[in-house]
Design brief:
By secondary structure, the protein is α/β, with parallel strands linked by helices. It has three domains: 5-83, no CATH class; 87-251, 3-Layer(aba) Sandwich (Rossmann fold), CATH 3.40.50; 297-412, Arc Repressor Mutant, subunit A, CATH 1.10.10.10. The chain is 46% helix and 11% strand. The protein has 17 helices and twelve strands. The strands form four sheets. The protein has a five-stranded mixed β-sheet with strand order 2-1-3-4-5, covered by helices on one side. A hairpin with a 2-residue loop joins strand 9 and strand 10 (393-395). Helix 9 (185-197) packs across helix 13 and helix 14 packs across helix 15. The longest helix has 16 residues, at 15-30. The N and C termini lie far apart (52 Å).
Length: 413
C-alpha cells in the first residue's frame, strides 16, 4: 500500500515506514513478485529488469506526492527541524495575535508550542447576504441570516459577533498580526474582510497562506494538519504591505456591491499582493446563477454527485463533494446542509429526501427535474427558486438576476 492514509491527510510523513516500504518493494521485484509495481515503474520510464533501491524510493516518493525521493527527504527534514527549532523566541511569537477564520487550529497551535493570543473570525461570508452597509446594520443582517440558516440562537450569535467586532476594533498601527489562510473563498473572504477593516498598516502584519501541502493527497484546510506541521508553516510566513491593504479594500467593496461587475473584474486576474485571492473570487463568482441552468456551482455539483452515484445519505453526498468534486473546498457540514435545503424544499424540488432523524443519514436522490437541469434542458430560474444572495448580490428569479457563465462573465438575465 502507499503512504498511510493518515499521513496523506495530516501531512506528517513516517519516513522510517517509507524507507522500509521501498526496500520491501525492491525485494518483491527481485523475487519476481509485485507485477503491479513493475508496471508502475515502467510507466515512470524505468524498464528494468534490474531495479535498484533508488528506483523503488522514487516510486514511494511519487505515491506520497513528491517528484523525487530527495525532495521527499528535504521536506521531511524541514518539517522535523522546524518542529524542533521553531524560532518562536527570535521572532517574538508571544506578542503576536494569531487570526484564523475558525478555531480549527487553536489547539494544535498550543500543542506545537505557540503562545501568542488566538482570535477567531468565523462568519461564513461565502453564504447569505454580505451587503455594503454601515457596521451596525451589516452585523444585524448577518445575524439574521445565521439565525435563519443554521438555527443558532440570537443571543449566541450576538455574543460571538460582539467578541469579533471588539477584537477588530482594537487593531491599530501597534498591532502585531499573523493571519493563517488557505486558498478557498471562505478563507480569502476572511482575509480581505480583516485587512479592509484595518485603519492603518500595523507594525507587524504577516500572512501564512497555502493551497497545498507536500505529501497531503487532498488538502482542504490547515486544521487537518498535524501540529508538527505548524512550525514549518510558521517559517514560511511573509509580510504584507500597503498594496495588500489597498487590494483587500478594493476586493471587499467589490464583493459587497449589488453589481458584481467589479468582483468579476478582480476575479479575472492574479494579484501579486494576495496571489490566492483571484482564483477564490473566481470560484465564488460561480455561486451566481449559471447562465445556462440557473444553478450555482455548488448546486450543480450536488446534482452531479447524485447523478453519478445514485441515492445516497446526505452526509455521503457532502463527503463526495468535498473530496472529489469541489475545486476549492470550503464548506462545513452545516453550511452544506443549509445549501442543500433549498433544492429539497423548493416548490419544484431538484432533490428528493427520504424521512429520517439525522439529516446526514437521510437518503437523497436527484429528481427528474434535477436530471433535466443537469442536461441543460431547463433553467432553475424559471421554476421560482427561493431568493438567495452571493456576496452583495441579491438573486430573485423574476427580477432579472445577475448570471454568470463558465468564463466568469456576468450580465443581467
Amino acid at each position: 500500500m502507499p503512504a498511510t492514509n493518515a499521513s496523506r491527510h495530516h501531512g506528517l510523513l513516517d519516513l522510517p515506514f517509507l524507507r522500509k516500504r521501498a526496500k520491501r518493494l525492491l525485494k518483491a521485484l527481485k523475487n519476481h513478485e509485485a507485477d503491479n509495481v513493475r508496471e508502475q515503474l515502467r510507466a515512470m520510464g524505468l524498464s528494468g529488469p534490474d531495479y535498484r533501491l533508488a528506483d523503488t524510493q522514487w516510486l514511494v516518493a511519487r505515491e506520497a506526492g513528491f517528484a523525487s525521493w530527495p525532495k521527499l527527504i528535504t521536506h521531511t527534514d524541514g518539517v522535523t527541524f522546524a518542529a524542533r527549532h521553531p524560532g518562536f523566541v527570535a521572532t517574538n511569537e508571544a506578542a503576536v495575535q494569531h487570526w484564523r477564520c475558525g478555531n480549527d487550529i487553536e489547539h494544535s497551535l498550543r500543542v506545537a508550542g505557540f503562545s501568542g493570543s488566538f482570535h477567531m473570525f468565523d462568519d461564513p461570508m461565502v453564504m447569505g447576504p454580505v451587503p455594503a452597509l454601515p457596521d451596525d446594520d451589516y452585523w444585524s443582517v448577518r445575524a439574521n441570516f445565521l439565525e435563519q440558516a443554521f438555527g443558532f440562537s440570537r443571543r449566541d450569535i450576538q455574543q460571538r459577533q460582539a467578541l469579533q467586532h471588539d477584537a477588530l476594533a482594537k487593531l491599530d498601527a501597534d498591532s502585531e498580526l499573523v493571519l493563517w489562510c488557505e486558498g478557498d473563498a471562505y478563507d480569502q473572504l476572511f482575509l480581505i474582510r480583516l485587512l479592509a477593516s484595518l485603519p492603518a498598516l500595523p507594525r507587524r502584519l504577516e500572512l501564512i497562506e497555502i493551497s497545498r501541502v507536500p505529501g497531503v493527497e487532498r488538502f482542504i484546510g490547515i486544521g487537518q494538519l498535524a501540529p508538527d506541521l505548524l512550525p514549518w508553516l510558521w517559517s514560511q510566513r511573509r509580510s504584507l504591505g500597503e498594496d495588500a491593504l489597498a487590494l483587500a479594500r478594493e476586493a471587499w467593496a467589490a464583493y459587497t456591491a449589488a453589481d458584481p461587475g467589479d468582483w468579476a473584474g478582480l476575479a479575472a486576474h492574479l494579484h501579486p499582493a494576495l496571489p490566492l485571492l483571484g482564483p477564490a473570487l473566481a470560484r465564488q463568482l460561480q455561486e451566481l446563477p449559471g447562465a445556462g441552468d440557473g444553478l450555482s456551482l455548488t448546486q450543480r455539483l450536488v446534482l452531479r454527485v447524485l447523478a453519478d452515484h445514485g441515492e445516497l445519505p446526505a452526509g455521503k453526498v457532502f463527503s463526495h463533494l468535498m473530496m472529489s468534486y469541489e475545486p476549492l473546498p470550503y464548506l462545513g457540514d452545516l453550511m452544506f446542509h443549509a445549501l442543500l435545503r433549498p433544492l429539497i424544499d423548493a416548490p419544484h424540488p431538484l432533490v428528493h429526501e427520504q424521512p429520517g432523524r439525522e439529516w446526514q443519514r437521510r437518503l437523497v436522490r436527484v429528481t427528474a427535474l434535477g436530471e433535466q437541469m443537469l442536461l441543460g434542458h431547463i433553467n432553475w430560474l424559471d421554476y421560482a427558486p427561493a431568493e438567495r444572495w452571493a456576496g452583495g448580490v441579491r438573486i430573485v428569479a423574476d427580477r432579472s438576476p445577475w448570471v454568470v457563465n463558465s468564463d466568469g462573465r456576468v450580465w443581467r438575465r
